[in-house]
Amino acid sequence: MAPDSVDPRAQAQLDQGNELFARGDLDGAVGCYRLALELAPDWADGHYNLANALHRLGRLEQALDAYDRAVDLRPDHAATRHNRAQALHRLGRLQEAISGYRDATERDSGAPAAWIDLGVALQDQGDDAAAVVALKKAIELDAGQPIAHNNLGNALASLGLASEAEHSFRRALELAPGYAEAQFNLGNALMALGHYGEATRAHVRASELDPGNRTYGLALRRALARRIPGWHLPMLADAPRNAAYRRALERVVTAESRVLDIGAGSGLLSLIAARAGAGRIIACEMDAELAATARQVIADNGYADQITVIAKRSNRLVVGEDLAEPANLLVSELLDTGLLGDGVLPVMRHALAHLTTPDVQVIPRGAVMIGVLVELPGLAPVYPVREVEGFDLSAFDRFRAPDAYLDVDLARVPHTRLSAPFTIASFDFAAPPPRRDERDTECRKLELEVVADGQAQAVVYWFELQMDAVETVSTGPDGDLLHWHQAAQYFEQHRRVETGQHLVLEIARSDHNVTFHLP
User: Fold this and answer.
1) Domain 8-227 is of which CATH architecture?
2) Burial bucket for residue 183 (CB in 10 Å: 0-12, 13-18, 19+)
């Protein structure tokens, strides 16, 4: 126990130490506290204050010795046990720290700070459920502490409760709008929920609040990367594709060209048209973040006066509002590996009916889809899912979409061609075929001759892209285009075939997909 009375000289040294501590002179404070303890060696306050100064200096082992002496002298002092647990926590002695925090809460159950630190230590130990209990107790005691709400959000996020975590981070920010860590954590929770736009804004704010924090900066870049599909950058790097569009545009653009660029993305095609001399260009990009970036790209390149970026779906554009008059040149790149998956047909149908002149020029003009029957063993065991390592995993097949197509590169994967290439369908983007939804597919049968023995497992297909009447480029295995590969669709039942055999292939087409079936 502390002595009933303290030597006034010791009290003076303690007071001077406290003054130095408050001014940030921790070494000076340690010297004063040690002098005080030479005069009053059993003074709990002296050992406690010395421990706190050593703790702040990072001299943790020495701080623990001082805390231990203070605990011996004053066992029921909750703050001493709390601070001692913090030192243990910093030393990585996690289980001892948790015991120390629990000791502190038992001696003063109404102190929220110890509950907060207990929650963090339990999280560090991996016991997120117990951490939630501790942090909720801290909030019950004092709901106005932002750090408690932030740490509760972290624990909830670790448990996979992203929506609840989001609520906690937002509450922390209501209490402390400048809390950079809570903004960062909110961004991560929104990412987990798939709210990439909001996540980006949260990470932007975190970086603004703490601009030197590399973690926040990297999180912002990751959030921005999730805003766009992964094919955007490989697409921009596809020099043959870019050149084909450039040549096609340069062949037709004049000063009288009124260009509508649908799905503008980075704004590259609009820039090419502007450089070629187009009089006026509307770049339509439905993603607001992409549209804002396209505006910056266009301004950076000096074409802001020629190109207007509109952040809308093309089917929301209105002539007389968004476009001064109908476009006489329509350019787009709405093509995925399977040609139709990004909605090129419905987009073209609407644009031609509502946004363009009757004599509009369309780039690209059309495409021909080419297929080949193949044995493609790589993923055959799971398309459909069957036996793996001697186990029947067919129940897992419920998670596979039977009409899904995969991106493959026939130049790199083992395969056997079982038929000659055949035409699946031809598309004139300047006169799209009638609308077909999944309930009203266009169906036809095609007879194929088998040219090699093997397992008929899939159809692999690609497209010949007709830029205009002059130039055609290909996504096929021997084509020049780089970022598109080929699409592969596996049959529900694989079939053994022999050379010379004739097969009937059923082909069904909707606006967004082509499917194949061996009857």
Assistant:
1) Alpha Horseshoe (1.25)
2) buried
